[in-house]
# Entry
Amino acid sequence: MARGKELLSAKQVANAKPAEQDTYLNDGKGLMLRIRPSGKRTWRLRYTVNGARRILDLGDGDLMSLQAARQKAEEARKLVDQGTCPIEHAQAKEKALKAEQEAKQREQESRRTFSTTLARWVELELSRRKGGGADNLRAIHKDVTPVIGDMELTAIKRGDLVDILDGIVARGSSRMANRTLADLKQFFNWCEALSLIHI
# Structure
């Protein structure tokens, strides 16, 4: 891509006002600041790659400085020099990132953690109680889930549960500790009945 002289100054950018029509401040080398009649500003880069003319939005002109826009534009130009379209490159990266996030989510969902198994127990068992077991679940989410929620079900030890219950007692809530213990016993007995764990 042909290189040219940078034309704008930070002062020109700061003092530019909107007009009745879209206004473009040209910085050279395809970089421009588009100012809409509403006052909205957008840095844009015009380029040609593989014979096709394209326009890439670089960012909000109120949040991105002239220097930052030039830097982003230069990064995009390097891709163009390699025959790569910056827009398609960004879309490919976004697609790859989304696929990675979905894969991690599937992996997380496939892990039999306390939280994922608890959700199933709530759906199949606890929800049958009076009030849907809302108070019981609230207590578990308050004291138990933050500690062992992400742990594999089979990795949870009796000592982990004792520590949690001791913590509830220590704050003066013995009755809550007993109720939580009863709920955890029912939960783990249910898990054993389904062969999810072996006690």
